[in-house]
Amino acid sequence: MSQVIIATGKRKTAIARAYLKYPGHGRVLINGKPLELIEPWIARYTIQEPLEFLSEDLRDKIDIYVNVKGGGFMGQSQSARMAIAKALIEFTKNEELKKAYLDYNRALLKHDPREVEPKKPRGKKARAKRQKSYR
């Protein structure tokens, strides 16, 4: 009997949904692309972080499929990382794994609410304003 767990992760405007399937063959696909082919390399290593805490035999028995949309490549990789970590904790139900994630990086499990402030009139960015001169 197969087991499927769904978890979500967010970062800025990027939203990721992770589907963890057990039993599996150790595959990790991000938007249908194998994790080994994700470029740039910094995004690939960011997504791999939660998998490093698992034992080798457990890693080979699960498949993880992640759908990500919105945001830039780094926001997408961080949201995918969060979704994978949440799915693994829900699958293993291991408090030690959860504590290890929180000790390593709290952003693996908790959403960071910071987002870009909207642009306002009279300026090029959110806070920058055109200077006034009365001469």
Would you report the number of β strands? Answer: 5
Give the overall average pLDDT. Answer: 91
Which CATH class?
Alpha Beta
Q: Work out the count of structural domains.
A: 1
**Largest β sheet strand count, sense and barrel closure:** 5 strands, mixed
Spatial sequence of strands, sheet with the most strands: 1-2-5-3-4
Tally of DSSP helical segments: 4
Distance between the termini: 79 Å
Q: Please, what is the oligomeric state?
A: single chain
Which stretches are poorly predicted, pLDDT < 50 over at least 5 residues?
A: none
* Radius of gyration from CA coordinates: 19 Å
Helical proportion, percent range: 25-40%
Shape call: elongated
What does this structure look like?
The protein has one domain (3-108): Ribosomal Protein S5, domain 2. It is 31% helix and 22% strand. The chain contains 4 helices and 5 strands; from the N terminus they run E-E-E-E-H-H-E-H-H. It has helices spanning 41-48, 56-59, 73-92, 95-104, and strands at 3-11, 14-22, 28-30, 33-34, 63-69. A 5-stranded mixed beta sheet has the order 1-2-5-3-4. The longest helix is centred in the middle third of the chain and has 20 residues, at 73-92. The relative contact order is 0.21. The model has no long low-confidence stretch (mean pLDDT 91).
Output the keywords.
single chain; 135 residues; alpha+beta; Ribosomal Protein S5, domain 2; 5-stranded mixed beta sheet; 4 helices; 22% strand
